Amino acid sequence: MTPVIRLAIGSIVVGVVVLALKLLAWRMTGSIALLSDALESTVNVATAFAALIAIRVAALPADANHPYGHTKAEFFSAILEGVMIIIAALLILRESWHGFTNPRPLEAPLSGLAINVAASILNGIWCWVLISQGRKRRSPALVADGKHLLSDVVSSVGVTFGVLIAIETGWAVLDPGMAALVALNILWSGWKVIRESMSGLMDESLSTETLATVRDIISREAVGAVEAHDLRTRHAGQAIFIEFHLVVPGDLTVTQAHDMCDRVEAAIKAAVEDVIVTIHVEPENKAKHTGIVVL
Fold it and tell me: Which residues does the UniProt record annotate as the domain Cation efflux protein transmembrane (predicted)?
């Protein structure tokens, strides 16, 4: 079992525990704001299952029907998570509307709030684990899951303060008001998750820093070549694809050109994890006098 899959399973376990705590807090208080918090946690559990499935599919090796592998499956999971976040926000808005039209006093709020705070602390710790490990292992599904939990933590803090103010002032309408604010925050979070996942599905290039590293490696390692041009990169989940044209002198033998490509490819793989490098060798009359200058 890979570390990424273990983290995905951990998300399911944490999500179920947090959901149980938040449902208990809602049952103890009758707070619509706390119900909105619990509804978001329901989505957390569903999306954690979706992330686990996507990560397992993404780990499958390339086959005849998918020669580039299955790594983009994680982006579909992240988009699904974004859609489910938006659906949760709409459900919360519906509950808040019912609260505005029929406000009611809260029951046993302090003990319920204490349970909700405990759930938020657990969520906060786990979202930090998911985001840090997801970025380290280049897993869009884990990062999306972590960011979703982060929005959950932020909204939970807002809910707690809102319910406390409602208790002190006696303004029951503040409870559904906080629920509506939670829904708006969740809507924004869902949109960001979808937008970031679309960049991967659209084959967005690597970051400026990584591109600079790759260019420097080619310039330094392709000793004996004329130039390198038409550098193209893209990322698909944990996999990174780099391809470019390498112009070599016409009197270079096939073996020499191949050895040069092997040297450049090995250097890139040493600097960039999970990378697939494709180099197209061209004779010097194909030089464009642009791109990467070989030292």
Answer: 11-202
